Amino acid sequence: MVDSAWTSAAEADMIALMFDLPQFKARKMEIDKLHEEIKSRITAIQKKRSRDVILIMNKVDLMTKKDAASASDVLSEFFSDVRPVDQFAISATRGDSVQDLKNCLADTLPEGPWLYPDDEMTTLPARLMAAEVTREKVFLQLKQELPYSVAVDTIAWEEYRNGSVRIDQEIFVQRQSQKGIVMGKNGTRIKALGVASREDIEELLGRKVHLFLHVKVRSDWQDRRDMYLPWGLNYNA
């Protein structure tokens, strides 16, 4: 569990629980230890300060209405103890009820001051932003083959006198077969990823970038704490 997510939840004005409904259905709609822990943590948070909770059932477009309703009912019943103020069955792909969800958030959340200057795009270091740009390109180009099996790490950053920068990044996959997918035939895919990522990083940094991508197999990257520490996350595997 990522501790920082729960720290944010404890400080938030609202808690939104989003569920992958088809995945829950595929697991025979069984409530497991993770669901128990989520409810327990939210209950503990609410004891300190009451806040609204909403339930979001996502990917209903991948299910029949009957199956979606059945899965939603199981989750709604289990989380009824945290007293959700609303529930939405949405499809981010088709847009089902997405506007209703936005309206709920806009109407419920209190107004507050800007926490950062309006011209500040991010508080992340440039190295992390560059890695995130490349990860985005991998996801966009390979989302069917590698939905969530890829991580990107900026391993070297060298500033040149002419103002340009050399960036070396490692793309981690979990299996050898996935490495071939990222590389593509004769390296065509990795080249396309490099071009797309470099263009966006150059726009982000406002200078010329020399980007070098390397693909490595690391089956346990999702369970390694060092993959989360640069983001300020304390991952308790």
The rounded Rg comes to 21 Å
Q: What is the element string, with H for helices and E for strands?
A: HEHHEHEHHEEHHE
**What is the makeup of the main sheet?**
3 strands, parallel
Multimeric state of these chains? single chain
Structural class: alpha/beta
**CATH homologous superfamily title of the largest domain:** P-loop containing nucleotide triphosphate hydrolases
Q: Please report the first level of CATH classification, the CATH class of the largest domain.
A: Alpha Beta
CATH architecture label name of the largest domain:
3-Layer(aba) Sandwich
- What value does the average pLDDT take? 87
Query: DSSP strand (E) fraction?
Result: 15-25%
First-to-last CA distance = 7 Å
- Residue share in helix: 40-55%
Given as residue ranges, the uncertain stretches (5+ residues, pLDDT < 50) are none
Number of strands: 6
Tally of separate domains? 2
At CATH level 3, the topology of the largest domain is Rossmann fold
Shape: globular
Task: State the strand order across the main sheet.
Answer: 1-2-3
GO molecular function: GTP binding; ribosomal small subunit binding; rRNA binding
Protein name: KH type-2 domain-containing protein
InterPro entries: GTPase_Era-like, KH_dom-like_a/b, KH_dom_type_2, KH_sf_prok-type, P-loop_NTPase
Keywords: GTP-binding, Nucleotide-binding, RNA-binding
